[in-house]
Design goal:
The complex is a heterodimer of chains A (113) and B (241). With 113 residues, chain A is α+β, with helices and mostly antiparallel strands. Chain A is built from 2 helices and 6 strands. Chain A has a domain of 79 residues: hypothetical protein PF0899 fold. The longest helix of chain A is centred in the first third of the chain and has 18 residues. With 241 residues, chain B is α/β, with parallel strands linked by helices. Chain B has a single domain, classed as Rossmann fold, CATH 3.40.50.300. Chain B contains 8 helices and 9 strands. The longest helix of chain B is centred in the first third of the chain and has 16 residues. The interface between A and B is medium-sized, with 32 and 36 residues. The complex binds guanosine-5'-triphosphate, magnesium ion (MG) and zinc ion.
Chain lengths: 113, 241
């Protein structure tokens, strides 16, 4: 359970960027959370209001895009989305796959005024 | 020089910079950013990794649930390899220096890091030890992370190799329940194999589940207590890291 400290890190980064843009308000931020990032969407959503309370971002909404585990198969070249974190091509059942999505934990954009 | 950021290697200054382009729309605008939220930790980890690589110090980050046998494995490892390699050990626990005390009389050197409220080590905690406790003359740095199967997975420390322990008392399906950490490991050590006869525990099932989550991990089953399988582990440390 480190989502509160992650939310605080996020608040610091967003505040620094918003100040750089001379924004008076950040209405929303959009972030990506990958299935393999080790970050839980629910608990981040739960912690975000605690981290923003009484800060510049007190009224900021958080929009979280969940990125599924995405693999590209080295045998059949199919891009598939394995279930249950099994590292397995859903098309041909090969385990010889490259992970192309699911590790991200990133700030994608923000709406400012 | 650091290839990611062009800064001096070992330079402790952290900077925050991101590519951005703005789409103007009346008083509202959307700023596209695409920056890793753990950028700051990743950057320090990157510096740690440079510092350690430049000095040929192989660095391992050992992660598992509490009580899987990390410290016990290190006790035996220092006994066996401590006079062959110069090894430094950093141990993360929220409180106490109990684990460090178990290793202090062994070959090699050990330091406890108390993370207090934090459930994992982060790169800045390791950075503080580089150039001081880790003086640069070591062959190997072994970091025992805080016992936790969730949080350590998200924080790079600057290690070359991630090692996860799965003890036989935990159930074979831990890798399925905590896939992120087990997926990230280069090596998975199955510990306490001496207890298998007393448990309803199936080694084949454990292999099967690990391979679903992490088909490429090297799997080493050991009993640090009886020594069974430990030769493979020592060989790995001596020749493969
Ligand atoms: N039977 C048996 N017991 C073991 C073995 N390895 C460790 N243990 C026991 O398991 C208990 C926990 O071991 P530790 O080495 O302290 O575990 P740890 O992972 O360092 O624990 P934390 O640092 O608290 O997360 C101790 O009582 C050890 O003696 C083993 O190979 N066989
Ligand atoms: Mg320990
Ligand atoms: Zn395929």
């Amino acid at each position: 359970m480190h989502e509160l400290s992650l939310a605080q890190t996020l608040v610091e980064s967003v505040t620094a960027l918003a100040k750089k843009e001379n924004a008076t308000k950040v209405s929303s931020i959009t972030i990506s959370v990958g299935a393999l990032s080790g970050v839980s969407k629910d608990s981040l959503e739960f912690c975000f209001p605690m981290a923003t309370k009484d800060t510049f971002l007190a009224s900021t909404k958080i929009i979280i895009n969940e990125i599924p585990l995405t693999t590209v198969c080295s045998e059949c070249e199919a891009t598939t989305y394995p279930n249950n974190y099994y590292i397995l091509c859903q098309n041909c059942q090969s385990t010889n796959v490259r992970i192309t999505g699911g590790k991200e934990f990133s700030l994608v954009s923000m709406e400012v005024e | 020089m650091c290839e990611d950021c062009g800064c001096e290697e070992g330079n402790k200054k952290i900077y925050f910079d991101s590519l951005e382009n703005s789409v103007e729309n009346a008083s509202q605008k959307t700023i596209k950013i695409e920056t890793d939220i753990l950028d700051k930790n990743n950057h320090i980890a990157h510096h740690n990794s440079h510092w350690l690589q430049d000095r040929n110090i192989a660095t391992l980050n050992i992660m598992s649930s509490p009580g899987s046998g990390k410290t016990y494995l290190l006790e035996k490892t220092l006994d066996k390899l401590g006079h062959l390699k110069k090894i430094a050990v950093l141990i993360g626990d929220q409180q106490t220096d109990n684990d460090a005390k178990r290793l202090i009389l062994k070959e090699g050197k050990v330091k406890q890091i108390n993370t207090v409220s934090s459930c994992h080590l982060d790169a800045s905690m390791i950075q503080k030890e580089l150039g001081s406790f880790v003086d640069g003359s070591e062959n190997m740095l072994i970091i025992e992370n805080v016992g936790n199967l969730v949080c350590p997975a998200a924080f790079k420390l600057g290690e070359k190799i991630k090692i996860a322990l799965l003890s036989t008392t935990e159930g074979e399906d831990k890798p399925l329940k905590y896939p992120v950490l087990f997926h990230s490991a280069d090596v998975i050590i199955i510990t306490k194999t001496d207890l298998i006869p007393y448990l309803d525990w199936d080694l084949n099932k454990a292999y099967e589940y690990i391979k679903k989550i992490n088909p490429n991990a090297l799997i080493i089953p050991v009993s640090a207590k009886t020594g069974d399988g430990m030769t493979r582990w020592y060989d790995y440390l001596m020749n493969e890291v």
